[in-house]
Amino acid sequence: MRRMLIVLAAIIVLSASGIAAAYFLLNRKGEGRRIAEKKGIPYLAIMAHRGVSDLAPEATDPAYRLALEMGADYLEADIQRTADGVLVCFHDDTLDRNTDAAQVFPGREMDSIDKFTYAELMMLDIGTWFNEKNPDRARETFHELKILTLEELIDIAESHDNRPGLYLETKSALRYPGIEKEIIDLLKSRGWIEDGASMESIEVGNDIDVDPLEDGDGEVEPAPVRIADGPARVILQSFEDESIRIMKDLAPNVPRIYLVDEELEEKKGGWNELIAIAKKYDADLGPSGYQAWPWRTGEAHRNGVLVHHYTLNKPWQMRLLRFFGTDGIFTNRTDLALKLYRRQKMQPLEEYFKRIGY
Ligand code: G3P
Ligand code: CA
């Protein structure tokens, strides 16, 4: 028994020192921050993944308004196109998981979004599924929520004293030829992208006077979010390197994130190959949390590539990734990330719902 305990203790000590060594030797502290500052991107960046989508139905008005009210750096959205050419915020390929398409359009619920007109999508309820799946977080006001257009998301982003950035993904990009130009043209028409805008570093008000490696007690008063006034007010993202190439051609000064996962890593021939693809298109990387090992992030940093990980919703995951040296996270719980990474003083959740009218 005693021997077993000694072996166990040795394993724990060795693993802990291994992780610490990896962190300090392979991912030098401060490297990510330097790269982020150069690009005008907040550090550690907090992306409201489909809004605050653990507390409200994903990609809906209340999910994004919560993120705005709490103080996320970016509103993240997946952009697709309807059969009649409207850009909408919707993640899945099909409507079956989080709408009532099976009742409204029986037999078409497994069709892809591009097979539906905008008017048809507007017949769907995108909120009730959330109440049924999460009775503890259900709210009467979530019934009959509608899919948002990209225009409406921009309206939301512009509706508050907080001015977060937009972090937009071309979802299933190969199904939507030309969607990069349509997104960029719309953002230009709304003043979010300027021709020839430089990526010079400016103060975006994200740097905080606390040690991000220490947990706080939520004692820092929230500062107004000013990302939309900076050079990285828009970040474009895609799992398709061809889409990233097009983004670079059309809007070279708009930061881009090449999204990757373990499957893609294997397919493309390894982590270094992903870094090489990102560098080829002057992009940064957006890997899954399972790819967050510090030596990988360290290698990206040595190549001048920033790393934003998805999707971290639990405090222990956020702490671990901070320790591993992430440069930013996509999260369904903006509130937890702000508290942990910024030590931001948060209001009771009901207060945020009251402020946004839900
Ligand atoms: O865009 C970052 C993250 O959202 C990628 O995964 O499937 O949630 O879009 P997904
Ligand atoms: Ca996404």
TrEMBL record:
All copies of domain GP-PDE, residue ranges: 44-341
GO MF annotations in UniProt: phosphoric diester hydrolase activity
Pfam families attached to this UniProt entry: GDPD (PF03009)
InterPro entries: GP_PDE_dom, PLC-like_Pdiesterase_TIM-brl
Protein name: Glycerophosphoryl diester phosphodiesterase
Entry's Gene Ontology BP terms: lipid metabolic process
Lineage, top ranks: Bacteria, Pseudomonadati, Spirochaetota, Spirochaetia, Leptospirales
Lineage: superkingdom: Bacteria
Organism: Leptonema illini DSM 21528
